[in-house]
Amino acid sequence: MPEKTHAPLTLTTEEMQQYGYKVVDLIVSHFGDLSSTNIVSLADRKQMDELLQQPIPNKPSSPEKVLQDVVDNVLTNVDFLTHPKFYSFVPSPSNFISAMADAIASGFNIFSGGWSTSPAAAELEIVVINWFLEMFHFPVVEGGGILTSGGSMANLTALTTARRIKCKNEYSKATIYLSDQAHSSNIKAIRVLGFKERQVRIIPTDMEFKMSLNKLKNAIAKDKLEGYTPFCIIASAGTTNTGTVDPLEEIADICAKENLWMHVDGAYGGAAILADKGKTYLKGIERADSLTVDPHKWFFQPYEIGCLLVRNHKWLSKTFSEKPVYLRDIEGNESEINFYDHGIQLTRGFRALKLYMSIKTFGLDQFKEAIQSGISLTENVEDFLRKSSKWEVVSPATLAIINFRCNPIEQNLTEKELDALNQYISKEILNSHSAVLVTTILQDQVVLRMCLINPRTTLDDIKDTLNSCEKFATTFIKNMTHESI
Ligand SMILES: *Cc1c(COP(=O)(O)O)cnc(C)c1O
Predict the structure, then answer these.
(1) Element at 177 (helix H, strand E)
(2) What is the largest CA-CA distance in the chain?
(3) Percent composition of the chain: helix, strand, coil (DSSP 3-state, to 5)
């Protein structure tokens, strides 16, 4: 077939194919041997400026050359959160099918805002939302939800809805409650919504990092006496620090008694509902009014995809519907959901596709197995640490998160020395590029934290990393004694 003359921004069929195969090969090789990739980049701004800053290119370059440049200079300077030794933050183990699904969604540039522009895209979003509603024992008929860019946007969407439904337009005296371990995105959302500091109650946690019920009840009672109107409690189902789940049943009871909105932030831990142990931890989650889950964490999806579920889908349309004239022709009838009416974004990518294709391809059982394996691995790491005289468990294995510190018993180190030792270990591990293991602070102690949701991570990987940690500890202790002599 003779090629047409080139319109701007196009390639020939053959060029597209060659280019596409190269990109696919690149992604396949990435998934093929994740353990051989450089896991972490420590580049600073100056180095990146030198490598990547450039004037706007007015003239074209060869596609292959641009691609090679990205392979050489960009992909070498990013962290790989899919790597089996990426233990920190919340890693994102991802999967190949979803990566390809994203390529399709983006390749066909499917608009997932309104029903009439892409009925099947809207329907698939309804399908995956229904799957989630079922998993979490939310009401499937009245319930609803929306896919967002991530947990932060899901929390913002939830709190906007909570305020609209509970407070209507008068919220100057409304108060909201969350624990000191709640994720920072909740505070950001509260700020975005324009609440004043005097309307926000940070409830202290107990020794196990759970929201203290007694302090929560006291705060609500005091606020009522002072003329405030409590309207919402944010419970964490899997805090990012320790994996701790707030007492959901009791919080649901308080919400029922006080007529408050119960939002559960399960961005990290929600996925554990698929594991037997997780179900026990998450008991009561089905009573939430709204629930954030984050498929780009423990549901193994590539960025970006978050999800908000609500008990009643009408709450979303009551909060977000606006009817501008320029959208009148794509309205459709009532059963046909326009997701732009259920959240903040109008133009939205087709996020449902990757979730749909990966769950359908692998089957939910494999997701269950992957989630269960993370929980079990973390428990095995706890056992391993407890058997060693060098390590101390600070917060036990909870929903695939464990916090611990190096504390060799024979050394009798002070708290200050222990903090410095564990900070040093983390720094040296990063500098060695062998793993990503960073610290957090728990009860004023510097501790090492692992979040082990990657089904490709093995106990041997972890023993290997702990072994390196012990070597760095020995060096640190040796230098320490020298200095103090
Ligand atoms: C990660 C996380 C969030 C934020 O989600 P993003 O997808 O990063 O926006 C919110 N809450 C908790 C508990 C999280 O772990």
Answers:
(1) strand 174-179
(2) 83
(3) 50, 15, 35
113 Cβ closer than 6 Å to some ligand 1 atom: no
234 lines ligand 1 (CB under 6 A): no
Q: Which atom of ligand 1 is nearest to the CA of 153?
A: 9
Query: How many Å lie between the centroid of ligand 1 and the Cα of residue 365?
Result: 25
Ramachandran category for residue 363: left, alpha or beta (phi over 0 → left; psi -120 to 50 → alpha) = left
Task: Catalogue all structural domains in the chain, each as residue range(s) with its CATH number.
Answer: 13-32+41-78 (no CATH), 110-362 (3.40.640.10), 366-484 (3.90.1150.170)
CB of 150 sitting under 6 A from ligand 1:
yes
| Residue 61 Cα distances to 6, 58, 209, 275, 380, angstroms | 16, 10, 55, 50, 52
Q: Is 185 in the pocket of ligand 1 (CB under 6 A)?
A: yes
- 392 CA from centroid of ligand 1 (Å): 28
* Probe target for ligand 1 pocket from 185, 211, 264, with the most ligand atoms within 8 Å of CB: 185
The CA distance from 375 to 398, in Å, is: 8
The neighbour count for residue 414, using CB atoms within 10 Å, is 9
**SS3 state of residue 253:** helix
Burial class (CB within 10 angstroms; exposed 0-12, middle 13-18, buried 19+) of 464? middle
Per-residue pLDDT of the chain (485 residues; tens, 9 = 90+): 555 567 999 999 999 999 999 999 999 999 998 887 789 999 999 999 999 999 999 999 999 999 999 999 999 999 999 999 999 999 999 999 999 999 999 999 999 999 999 999 999 999 999 999 999 999 999 999 999 999 999 999 999 999 999 999 999 999 999 999 999 999 999 999 999 999 999 999 999 999 999 999 999 999 999 999 999 999 999 999 999 999 999 999 999 999 999 999 999 999 999 999 999 999 999 999 999 999 999 999 999 999 999 999 999 999 999 888 887 776 667 789 999 999 999 999 999 999 999 999 999 999 999 999 999 999 999 999 999 999 999 999 999 999 999 999 999 999 999 999 999 999 999 999 999 999 999 999 999 999 999 999 999 999 999 999 999 999 999 998 655 54
Place of tokens 């190269």: 22
- What's 227's DSSP letter? T
21-31 residue pLDDT tens: 999 999 999 99
- What predicted TM-score, i.e. pTM, was given to this entire model? 0.96
Mutate to test the pocket of ligand 1, among 236, 240, 242, 303 (most ligand atoms within 8 A of CB): 240
